Amino acid sequence: MPCQVSIIIPTLNEGKYLPLLLDSIKKQSFSDYEIIVADAGSQDRTREIAQKYGCQVVKGGSVAQGRNSGARAAKGNLLLFLDADVILPQSDFLEKLLKKFKERKLDIAFFPIFARGNIIDKIVYALYNFWTFLTQKFLPHATEVILVKKEIHQKIAGFDEEIKIAEDHAYVRQASKIGRYGFLLVGPVLTSNRRFERDGRFKTYLKYLLAGLHMVFIGPVKSDIFHYKFDHYSKNKK
To answer: What residues contact 55, with CB distance under 8 A and at least 6 apart?
Structure first.
């Protein structure tokens, strides 16, 4: 049956975080959605957990490949891409998000996100959210969470699977060329700080900054110069 929103989650060994996200989705007052988990061959209980929660499970790959795979299976007119380690806030979050999305007549949107980390992470994310708000008219940003009309996703042929890092930024900038992008003051969504803990905060923040500058002055990062890996931090890797 068709639904209003297809929630798409790329996964690889997300047995620890996926239940937290799925619980937060199930608590939402809005219920006209489907959940699609695009799994890249997890070796833990990720697929089992997804099926237990009634999710549709499809074949994934990289983050971009998983998102595209999920979108191909989606029945909703709106696509909500979520990373597996985020948590939706209060139970009326989706309801408010969709209302503001419609009120502003948007085609693609990003919204505040904060790390479940220390004070440094919170300050950095606050600055990132503020910068995203200021630049939404001329330099769209998005990371980990994106709401987009399915027709826009299809028109730009989805996420560029050749991009190694910041494929979500490239995606919203491409989409904003044919649709209306906006930063919605709803939330914030919470995300884990696991990459910062594993790689080090300074190194990770610097990598993100350099990748952002690379996108602006050179173009999307399609080489492996930043050595950015999907699931490299997982203890479940064999």
So the answer is: 9, 22, 35, 36, 37
Residue 158 C-beta-side C-alpha neighbours within 13 Å: 16
Instruction: State in words which class domain 5-217 has.
Output: alpha beta
Report in angstroms the alpha-carbon separations of 150 from 23, 57, 64, 232: 25, 19, 15, 30
Cis-peptide into 140, omega within 30 deg: no
Question: How confident is the model over 153-198, as pLDDT tens digits?
Answer: 999 999 999 999 999 999 999 999 999 999 999 999 999 988 888 8
Q: Which residues face 221 on adjacent strands? A: 165
54: left (phi over 0), alpha (psi -120 to 50) or beta: left
Six-digit token pair at 29?
């007052």
Coil, helix or strand for 6? Answer: strand
Tokens, residue 91: 């139970």
Contact 49, 18 (CB under 8 A): yes
Residues 6+ apart with CB under 8 A from 167: 63, 64, 159, 160, 161, 220
Pairing of strands 113-115, 189-191: parallel
Q: Which residues contact 97 (CB under 8 A, 6 or more apart)?
A: 109, 111, 147, 184, 186, 187
As a whole number of angstroms, the distance between CA 184 and CA 187 comes to 9
Domain parsing of the chain, residue ranges: 5-217
Of the pLDDT bands very low, low, confident and very high (cuts 50, 70, 90), residue 237 is very low
Per cent of the chain over pLDDT 90 is: 76
Using DSSP's 3-state secondary structure scheme, residue 229 falls into: coil
